[in-house]
């Protein structure tokens, strides 16, 4: 760690600039020197913003929060891939040592009808919240707390539910999908509940409601490319999409509720 | 969540399941069509008798209508999906590359290989089913000499090349489509999915090699 911080890099950046939701926007070229290989991608963007402030320019707006790969805010399309070229890595966890001095790096916002650009690299991911609000919860009528081991859950389902629950709602699946489909996100949320006894009861109705909302918001249809799985920073599997398809089909047959 | 059902067959998942179900049934049609056509290898009598048995059965109209329905549903859904998916990303990326860990050539080209299959289908039916009519008598029954039509049709190298190119396209289409249909229908299990994916590639290979062997065989029957 730390290592060769004396070898700084010079980069050519192409960044999407857009004043507001109404603006047409365009790619703008920037040159940035003095980038340390130890910086994260966001720190590099901060350095660029500091330079822009010194030059009296308008800083580049981008979302970020935890900077440790857990909140899902940092959304950037880097050189044509969601969160950049590293597998299972968020933008905030991507390091500049993955790039070489002299590289040209293209930075764009997520592109989807359902994710309108607010400013520069910032998009409105409220559509995800609307999908959750449509059914991504359990209606609890529980009474007193259960005894800890009263409801037994098999190891396999517990693991699968935890894997699905690793989704941080970043939207990289939508951004990387050629159809801007939200199926990986929605299926992760459906799976984490469907696999556990408390969530399983309403699974079919939940799937109907969340899928209907997802369609209404203008996300595309899955064509089973698996690009979402490949670019998801949390390694969510398309196996979840198959589970959602299955839950939806069971619901369509009207077998429960 | 509301308890009211919202499972329209035209929802995103409904459309995909129609695609998957019709696609798999069409795969089934490909297999039966191939097996039936293998009577070609047995000579004119076998092929003509098979064809006669098929076309003289009144149920053929039902089967043809069902097949037409499958193709129409598959194609109409495909058109709807492609249009909707274009609309879902109104502003394109400046740079957009695949990770190499996800989509394949076959998955990316489904609409194109599908269109080639459709063009092929029309030309294929016009050239053979509605092609030159000859008749022959086998075991005292007068019937169409479809064998002669077929052999004659495939004396033209252009017809053979077009046929093989189309089968390569259809092979690529089904090499992704076969497993994709299982995924769409929710028939997925980590243990079986790799096997289904392998079966999908083998199915594609079967389409290319199996079907391509037919016109080549016909060409060789023409006294060259
Ligand atoms: C015998 C002929 C055909 C067979 C066996 C076949 C088979 C399949 C299968 C199994 C799928 C996968 C469905 C899924 O992912 O759930 C599929 C998808 C597709 N087919 Fe076909 N197909 C045929 C003809 C056509 C034709 C004629 C067209 C268009 C003109 C077409 C267009 C498509 C498209 C665009 C998809 C991708 C849809 C999506 O993933 O959303 N296919 N096909
Ligand atoms: S499924 Fe993966 S890519 Fe999609 S929102 Fe969740 S964490 Fe992000
Ligand atoms: S800033 Fe929280 S995941 Fe990147």
What does this structure look like?
The complex is a heterodimer of chains A (257) and B (224). Chain A is of the alpha+beta class. Chain A is built from nine helices and seven strands; from the N terminus they run ββαβββββαααααααα. Chain A has a five-stranded mixed β-sheet with strand order 2-1-5-3-4. The longest helix of chain A is centred in the last third of the chain and has 15 residues. The mean pLDDT of chain A is 93. By secondary structure, chain B is mainly α. Chain B has one domain: Up-down Bundle (3 helical TM bundles of succinate and fumarate reductases), CATH 1.20.1300.10. Helices cover 70% and strands 4% of the residues of chain B. Chain B contains eight helices and two strands, in the order H-H-H-H-H-E-E-H-H-H. In chain B, strands 1-2 form a two-stranded antiparallel sheet. The interface between A and B is large, with 63 and 51 residues. The site of FE2/S2 (inorganic) cluster has 13 residues of chain A, from loops.
Shape of chain B: elongated
Q: What's the total number of strands of chain A?
A: 7
Low-confidence stretches of chain A: none
- Name the helix and strand elements of chain B from N-terminus to C-terminus, one letter apiece: HHHHHEEHHH
| Name of the CATH superfamily of chain B | Fumarate reductase/succinate dehydrogenase, transmembrane subunit
CATH architecture of the largest domain in chain A: Orthogonal Bundle
Question: TL;DR?
Answer:
The complex is a heterodimer of chains A (257) and B (224). Chain A is 35% helix and 13% strand.
């Amino acid at each position: 760690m730390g290592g060769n911080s004396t070898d700084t890099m010079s980069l050519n950046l192409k960044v999407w600039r857009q004043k507001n939701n109404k603006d047409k926007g365009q790619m703008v070229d920037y040159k940035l020197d003095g980038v340390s290989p130890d910086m994260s991608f966001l720190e590099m963007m901060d350095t660029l913003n500091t330079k822009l402030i010194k030059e009296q320019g308008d800083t580049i707006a981008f979302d970020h929060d935890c900077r440790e790969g857990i909140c899902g805010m940092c959304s950037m399309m880097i050189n044509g891939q969601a969160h950049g070229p590293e597998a299972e890595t968020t933008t905030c966890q991507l390091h500049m040592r993955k790039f070489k001095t002299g590289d040209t790096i293209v930075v764009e916002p997520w592109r989807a009808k359902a994710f309108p650009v607010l400013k520069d690299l910032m998009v409105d991911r409220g559509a995800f919240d609307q999908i959750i609000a449509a059914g991504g919860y359990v209606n609890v009528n529980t009474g007193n707390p259960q005894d800890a081991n009263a409801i037994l859950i098999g190891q396999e389902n517990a693991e699968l539910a935890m894997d699905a629950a690793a989704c941080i709602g970043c939207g990289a699946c939508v951004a990387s999908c050629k159809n801007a489909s939200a199926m990986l996100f929605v299926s992760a949320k459906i799976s984490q509940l469907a696999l556990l006894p408390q969530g399983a009861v309403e699974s079919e109705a939940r799937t109907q409601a969340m899928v209907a909302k997802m369609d209404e918001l203008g996300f595309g249809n899955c064509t089973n490319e698996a690009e979402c799985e490949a670019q998801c920073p949390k390694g969510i599997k398309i196996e979840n999409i198959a589970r959602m398809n299955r839950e939806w089909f069971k619901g369509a047959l009207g077998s429960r509720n | 969540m509301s308890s009211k059902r919202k499972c329209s067959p035209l929802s995103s998942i409904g459309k995909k399941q129609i695609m998957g179900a019709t696609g798999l049934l069409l795969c089934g049609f490909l297999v039966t069509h191939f097996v039936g056509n293998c009577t070609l290898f047995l000579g004119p009598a076998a092929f003509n008798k098979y064809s006669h048995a098929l076309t003289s059965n009144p149920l053929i109209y039902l089967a043809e209508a069902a097949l037409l329905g499958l193709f129409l549903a598959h194609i109409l859904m495909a058109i709807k999906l492609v249009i909707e998916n274009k609309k879902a990303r109104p502003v394109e990326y400046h740079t957009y590359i695949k990770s190499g860990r996800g989509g394949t050539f076959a998955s990316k080209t489904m609409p194109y290989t599908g269109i080639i299959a459709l063009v092929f289908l029309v030309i294929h039916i016009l050239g053979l089913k509605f092609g030159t009519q000859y008749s022959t008598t086998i075991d005292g029954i007068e019937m169409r000499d479809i064998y002669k039509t077929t052999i004659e049709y495939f004396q033209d190298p252009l017809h053979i090349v077009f046929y093989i190119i189309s089968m390569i396209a259809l092979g690529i289409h089904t090499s992704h489509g076969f497993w994709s249909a299982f995924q769409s229908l929710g028939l997925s299990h980590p243990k079986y999915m790799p096997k289904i994916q392998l079966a999908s590639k083998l199915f594609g290979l079967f389409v290319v090699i199996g079907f391509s062997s037919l016109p080549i065989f016909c060409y060789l029957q023409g006294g060259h």
